[in-house]
Amino acid sequence: MRTSYSIGTARRLGALLCLPNMWLATLALGFVASWQPPAQASARLAQDPSEELDTELAALLDEERSEAERLRRGGRCKEALRLVGQHLDDEPSDWRSLGIRGRVRQDLCEWAPAEADLTAAFEAARAAAAPEALVLGLDLSSLDLELGRATRALQRIGGLVGASARRDFLTGRALLEIGNHASAMEAFGEARVRMEVAYDLDTAKSVVLIDGRTGAGDAAVRIFTAFITREFGEDSFEVRRTSQSISPSAATAGAGPRIH
């Protein structure tokens, strides 16, 4: 079979054949471009191809766990359960997904399954020395408080490693439940009380209006109520809830001091 070339192509081929140095230079450049230092080349050859796949899979799982948490916080608990359920079907020892499922079940008031999931996730995280162990331990402490186990919650919190605002809040809440009001206020912290507790005082009408919508505010209401009960007796004042916002005009008149 004969191959035909145009005149221009033939001239170019002829020029290249007459320039052996150019061929050598081209080959040398190709070698330099593909050559790697021995250490880099051996490291690339030694790398397990599955490691890259594992990294991508871990990133995908983290993304889906974040989505499950977002669904849970948005009240879409069934969708969150379905998503983490797929993870646990594939890998029952996935303690991060197990912890999310425990939180979802806690939101659904499924106390026993929630406690089982959170306990298993906490033990696995603690064994792995993972920082998530603190969050999971606090989840269990919160569950204890929901079930009226304030003493157990305090014991659990005391065994955790790490500090957080949520830890202080749950400690204060547990102390309130067992009646230790002074220690509860210390747990909440003066700075937090100043930032989160709003109140209005009308000395002329003997009325105190306290915003108890935050955790620290609720604690302040309880502690102040305990204080005036001890000082003046439980029959000397009245406590009631109100939807009024705190403002100088919010306090209302009536017989005896009142706490709103």
Structure overview:
The longest helix is centred in the first third of the chain and has 25 residues, at 49-73. The protein has a four-stranded mixed sheet, covered by helices on one side. It is 67% helix and 5% strand. It has a domain at 197-260. The protein is elongated. The protein is mainly alpha-helical and 260 residues long. Residues 1-47 and 247-260 have low confidence and may be disordered. It is built from 13 helices and four strands.
Distance between the termini: 104 Å
- Tally of DSSP helical segments: 13
Q: What is the strand arrangement across the widest sheet?
A: 1-2-4-3
Round the mean pLDDT to the nearest integer and report it. 77
Give the proportion of residues in helices. 55-70%
| Global geometry | elongated
Low-confidence stretches are 1-47, 247-260
Listing every helix as H and every strand as E from the N terminus to the C terminus, the arrangement reads HHHHHHHHHHHHEEHEE
* DSSP summary, beta strand count: 4
Tell me the fraction of residues in β-strands, as a range: under 5%
Tell me the structural class.
mainly alpha
Based on CA atoms alone, the radius of gyration comes out at 34 Å
Largest sheet: 4 strands, mixed
